[in-house]
Amino acid sequence: MSTETLVPYDEALARYEPVLGIETHIELGTTTKMFCGCATEFGAEPNTQVCPVCLGMPGSLPVTNRAAIEGIIKIGLALNCTIVEWCRFARKNYFYPDMPKNFQISQYDEPLCIDGYLDVEVEGETYRVEIERVHMEEDTGKSLHVGGATGRIHGADFSLVDYNRAGIPLVEIVTKPIVATGDKAPLVARAYATELRELVRALGVSDVRMEQGSMRCDVNVSLMPKGASEWGTRSETKNVNSLRSVERAVRFEIERQAGVLDAGGRVIQETRHFQENTGSTTSGRSKEEAQDYRYFPEPDLVPMAPSREWVEQLRAGQPELPAARRARVTEEWGLAEKELRDIVNAGALDLIEDTIREGADPAAARKWWMNELSRRATEQGADLAELPVTPADVARVSGLVAEGTINDKLARQVFDGVLAGEGSPDEVVEKRGLKVVSDEGQLGTVIDEVIAANPDVADKIRGGKVAAAGALVGAVMKATRGQADAGRARELIIQKLTS
Amino acid sequence: MTIIKKTAAELAALIASGEASAVEVAQAHLDRIAAVEGSVKAFVHVEPETTLAQARAVDDRRAAGETLGPLAGVPIAHKDVFTTSDMPTTCSSKILEGWRPPYDATVTRRLREAGLVILGKTNMDEFAMGSSTENSAYGPSHNPWDLGKIPGGSSGGSSAAVAAYEAPLATGTDTGGSIRQPAAVTGLVGMKPTYGGSSRYGLIAFASSLDTPGPLARTVLDAALLHEAFSGHDPMDSTSIDQQVPPVVEAARRADVAGLRVGVVKEFGGEGYQPGVLARFHEAVEVLESLGAKVVEVSCPHFTYALPAYYLIAPSECSSNLARFDGMRYGLRVGDDGTRSAEEVMALTRAEGFGDEVKRRIMLGTYALSSGYYDAYYGKAQQVRTLITRDFDAAFEQVDVLVSPTTPTTAFPIGERADDPMAMYLADLCTIPSNLAGNAAISVPCGLADEDSLPVGLQIMAPVLADERVYRVGAAVERALQDRWGGPLLAKAPQL
Questions:
Q1: Which of A14, A386, B257, B473 is 20 to 30 Å from A319 at the Cα level?
Q2: pTM of structure
């Protein structure tokens, strides 16, 4: 459907400098909505979590949810923002059926949190993304357009609206223009979204699930010719619903806009929609005739004036934030940068820390989660955290190995059992009879058989080539299906053949 | 006829003592409504069965030994701007025709709990925009003093009902004078409490920062009793003030002004004011002086700009508040024939559902809030609002209350100003400053104008949260003037 000519990425970056801006909406995980007492549970029957207030019925009035304000202040503090002493809500006026009042209670020129930053790392370089503002608003309902080809309102046979989402507290985080990222722009955008997600998750104020829409990014991209001082016209890409999409959307827009500019064209200021399947963006509503939202202070709500005591109390109660935590574990676990990144990307940081807290050695905890269990998660197409194995289980397995009750090979079988629902590690060891065999009598019989079956190797050892014992140990392990204590077996073999 | 002529306080006493039941009192008023409603047209909705069921419930509660509020069993008419869970609520607009809200307004709920019996919903200017009820989609109400005249507005159905003895009490809302002006032109007492003193929850918003629920009654004491019954902090309304209700009933009973400093607003008088209105006003001021008040003239220079500021702020808020009426979720829906888009259906619904004045104000407000105009209009109006508040602050340093005529003229003929919005807007000239500043203000009858023998209102204004002061002064004036008249002013009204 598009007739755009894309310019290959490297070529585009050779001629143009991208400028980014990212607006992120985060639904707070409060138990009730922003301005009424309705529940906020995701996935409930449509229109069952509604009341006169969130349906915008005539005469109803909003009352601010203190827990939501607490949530946004925590986010603002974590983003190094100033929490203002006084601000107001504002009405953003526009008509759309999923907005019960045909205005959204939001904030305009008086946001609650201003002037912050978030440092992100890309390929060892730190980029400081400056935060313009963090403000509070309410979510809209959700429209479902039935029939038609696009799933959009135009061409649909009819539309259904679910107001369960209407009035859920929404925090909008707006960056200042992100400049001088060059060809790293898509990665910086992704790193920012990733870091922001980790940060908010660490604060415990939202589940930040992009696939469920509790975190949504709008990505603004503009290009200017290298060396120019004036920024170009930006596009705003919506519906960017995964971290990977953030990166792809930026990349695509750079390639597309470079094509437009190379052809002597003019980038149109417009809303674009990201298409997950093609990785491209398509034109949405044009913002050339800028929509006038007629903002004005919300007269139904009194101004917000968070006391300094409250803000300081919240600051003091902030948990360890991801960057600090990463620095700490890198140090404590002696990690290389890449190892840490792999752990974070695998979503294993919490799991490993919890495992260590349950008594495991850091190296062992990391080894089990990052190798054995990661492999199984990949096989099952599941997240690590979704595997039916707990950090306590992993700590116990690693403990059993350390005390010599089992070895690594047996440990894998223990995990098989735990994942298959056969019980705790101890129960699996018991049921499957997975203890290491180190008893001299039991091992001795097996060793005798192995020596008899491998006379050549035995002779080498007898002749002083002790290193050849490895082959016999392997045979012992095979014969005992891994249950033999390999070290003990080696000792016994050498003892038998050299004494 | 005896029951309906009684004040709410008298009715409450009769019911409390068992001399009359709530059902008898309700029935007497329903009979009166049946008799005169054809010419007064005060109500948009009357549902006798519902009313009588409520009255029976109050009688049952009393019989069961429950302790009831001071107005239990007294009937009341609610302005159709308050949601009622058992009666339709339309704001006298076609766009809400037949809408039955799933919930009670806080004012409705509190009065229901206090045992007041709802007679029905009263007519009003559509969405409270107007000063005559002529903007009602269901036709105008008529002034019981002269059926050819307007009963004021927007709470004109409420004033007509109380002045015609169809109800002893009524609720109203005052955004720019919508309680005080109807009270003034029908010879009633009408009070605009301090903004935030009475809950707006369930009051269908016209202009959120100005809308104030208040009482209409035939006596100052009745108004105070009703005021006390529905006021007080409401957690459902963020702008509601978390403080004790001022002692208004006590003040209405006290009714003395000795030593009180009274300021006459210099800017309200002279050109454009009906001579008969000014004559009655000056007499009332003399009465206050004779009662021991110290009267001085006070200048409030910015009051002159109140009207234009109001006609930017109120339409701006209304343009946003009324956006929700789009035919999608409740009320009227026009043009939904399967071929039109949601946007078209919204536009058709609003085009047909709203009357001219509502559309005029939505357009004014939309314009005033537009990007590029905001500072010049809405922003500037808010600055004027601040200046008016400062005028009040400065005035109340010198005096305890301010007084002025409530309206520049008496009731005008139905139809006279219908096509002249500016002339209509002038009816609220003296009342608007207190809406902009949020302070308390009452209108009490102060006689009949010589030219047309129609009622004139005296407006008494007090600082924010000093509501009791206007009751004190109002009751004193009421007592003195009734002595002079030999009874209530309303007794001079023609028999219907």
A1: A386
A2: 0.89
